[in-house]
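FORM 7B: Structural annotation worksheet

SECTION A. Query
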Amino acid sequence: MGGIFLGIDIGSTTVKVVVLDSNRRLLDWRYVRSRGRPRQALLEAVDELADVIGDATILGLGLSGSGGGPVADLIGGTHVNELVAQTRAIGAYHPEARTVIEIGGQDSKLLSVRWDPSSQQMLLEDFAMNALCAAGTGAFLDQQAERLGVAIDQEYARLALTSTNPARIAGRCTVFAKSDMIHLQQVGTPLPDILMGVCLAMARNFTTVIGKGKRFVPPILFQGGVAYNAAVTRAFETVLKVPPGSIIVPEYH
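SECTION B. Predicted structure
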């Protein structure tokens, strides 16, 4: 095999690795939870991709994410600001996008972007990020799922999407959310309604705290690990009052 490119993102809760050929076509990828050991998770992910990487020449190595900088210093790669990396990727795969919702393990971002025909590049016009509190992020969703005894990967969305009367839950604080959920369980609220209520709380928190009155101009893109959860996508469609199926979730979000 000829030369390859490696892309590594080390976030707060997950590690992502992609392998591309010399024409920048995706050959394989891994997405793993780091569980507090990001470097070990990275080694395991790369080891799983050993057959794909083989003895190929690495033409380029790019790293992003909150933990990407220190690792770049160790292995000699180039660390790229994740806002820059995301904007470049959006331009390559979804140049039609105007608004980007991104929710990871402990970070969430709102990006306003615009395709510039003259330079053939996606421009980042504005952005907002969450504060230090993890309320309204993937960690928040994980906590609530664990409290309710629901598997976050597949079971959560499947159950939440069957809700007929979503519960009202506070989304700005995990302590208040826990109190609401305990009360809802005590009064016999159906589990799907609680689960969907958490998703709606996340969406409301994002639009009011991070959005802060900003316009969510369509087409809207949803990125980050939380985009795996179809119930959260549905919640954003409800809160933003856009038609079902109109929020774009990229294949490799």
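SECTION C. Observations
The radius of gyration is 19 Å. The mean pLDDT is 91.

SECTION D. Sign-off
Analyst initials: ____
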